[in-house]
Amino acid sequence: MPSESPSDAKPPPPPLSTPLAQRINSATRRAHIESNALILSLLPLALKPHVADPCLYVRGMRCIYEIYFAFEHITRTVLHDPSPPQQYDCRTVAAVRRLHIPALERRWRLARDIDQLTNPRGEEKGLIVTRAQLSQRQPRLVGFLSHVYSRLPRRPHLLLAYHFLFYHALFNGGRHIRAQLKAAGCRFWHHPDAKEHAGSSRCDEFENKLSFWHFDSEEDGEDLKAEFRRRYEEVEAAFTEEEKEEIVEEARYVMAELLGVVQEMGEVIGLGKATFGSSNSTSDSTPPHATWLMRPRPRMANGLEVSSLRWLLLKHVFPMGTVELALAMWDTAVCALGVR
Fold it and tell me: Residue 305 forms beta bridges with which residues?
């Protein structure tokens, strides 16, 4: 029999396309593991018995709020922009509209949480900082936000990376974090007179300050998770292979930047940087090396103050009371030198 000519041969069947969600997971797995480990190591240090109130938690969540606000605001803009239709590709707008689930939006919930945790106590109002202050104290976060605000309006299909990463983070790890936060008890969440039992109305009230971690659904978010995954599989068909690869690359970039933001967040929360203290609190005669000592510091659960998370980390290493003793000796020495 004559051999089949190349022109008559059938092309090989196209390889089965890997789902976009799976490709994002593969591309971001390492950064996910590193960032999750860092978050889970920092979170207990922002709760009792290490600190007496939620001020460190609020400082960290202020950073998270900026990220959720950015991509959720752009999502709303893409869906409701009154500009001419050519501003955004109709195919992309339809996909983003299909993927958008209002019950998943977190920015207003987190804004309300922060407001409730800060406004009742005047000394903590300074935790809500301006964008200008963020640019000075958290350049990594501000750089990431600049990228989001400049790139997503021009390439709105990249929103699929943000929706997948940040909503899936809540689905997969949010319950664990919520359980840790609730375990701190109602007294910790600004109710010193509340009874520590589930039947107390005052104790139930503190969960309103953790609404970011809750879903308004019959199955506590499991039904939303299933619906989100189903829609995600549907909308990915609307994009070309090149656009999908862009989404995967954006997800890889986001996770790398998020890891840096979390590291920076740990420093801003208390690793020695002058963070939320007023710049007017020091005089020209104050020694530069002593400036960090003069900013407001979170209180330890036993009444002492702590100047940085380094002390909290050391508490896991040294015997009980050793770190507090060292801190007291340091404060005594500083007072003797006339720094404070």
Answer: 299
